[in-house]
Amino acid sequence: MTTKTQMLVRLPADLKIRLKERATANNRTATGELIAILELVFASDPKEAA
């Protein structure tokens, strides 16, 4: 089981709106969408492959 922690993230209002819109389009919560975005970014980062 994955341990989950909380983190406060401050976003500009326009990014929050875009995140919520994208989450709705992908049938996710804003948190789920943010996790999906971060996983994609880390997976495509060559520095993470080491």
Protein described:
The protein is an all-alpha fold and 50 residues long. It has one domain. The protein has helices at residues 13-25, 30-44. The longest helix has 15 residues, at 30-44. It is globular. The model has no long low-confidence stretch (mean pLDDT 92).
The count of strands amounts to 0
Distance between the termini: 24 Å
Q: Roughly what fraction of the amino acids lie in strands?
A: under 5%
Tell me the number of helical segments per DSSP (H or I, 4 or more residues long). Answer: 2
Structure characteristics:
mainly alpha, 50 residues, 56% helix
Task: Give the topology.
Blueprint: H1 13-25, H2 30-44
Helix pairs in contact: 1-2
In short:
The chain has two helices and no strands. The chain has helices spanning 13-25, 30-44. It is globular and about 30 Å long.
